[in-house]
Design a protein that fits this description.
The structure is a single chain. The chain is mostly helical and 176 residues long. It has helices spanning 2-33, 37-50, 55-67, 71-84, 89-102, 115-138, 144-175. Helix 1 (2-33) packs antiparallel against helix 2 (37-50), helix 3 packs antiparallel against helix 4 (71-84) and helix 4 (71-84) packs antiparallel against helix 5 (89-102). The protein starts with a helix and ends with a helix. 26% of the residues are buried.
Amino acid sequence: MLIFLLCASFFCSACINNFAVQELNQIGKEYLDKGEYDSAIARFQSCLDLDENIFETRYNLGVAYIGKKDYENAILNLKRAIELNPASGDAYYSLAVALEGDGVNLNNPDEKPLPEEIKTSLEQMKEAVSMYEKYLLIIQGEDEAVQTHIIELKNDIEQCETFLKGAADDTDSASS
């Protein structure tokens, strides 16, 4: 009888936890849809306190961080979401967006990023291309806008590599 009561209480608490997580996720999603990112993040963080291994929570939290332009936390949560559900095309797409957002703006003439910043952005652009390609693989390539964006990113990568090579050549010739 005691074992039955322990098992029953365990299953009941798991059901209550699951219901609470679903409710908090729904409230967080409503905040997210309204662009209230701080409130959404707070709800999703509460979900993680109850169960940190729910794909929906990690994914939505990552998207909320993208909305807030906190790309570091977005990347962290979206990578965890992908670990929980590697078949989610949307998670790969959102991760690619976060990786792009986290890089330096190479098109702003007022900012002159350091070569190290460009190298980091270059690696992130390459990873973003890989994530977009995984997204296309999962959805079976039915997104022409993403296909076009990948081509643009690859052109940007090539320009960055050319710039870095030129900067390295300039450094080498100046030291000779």
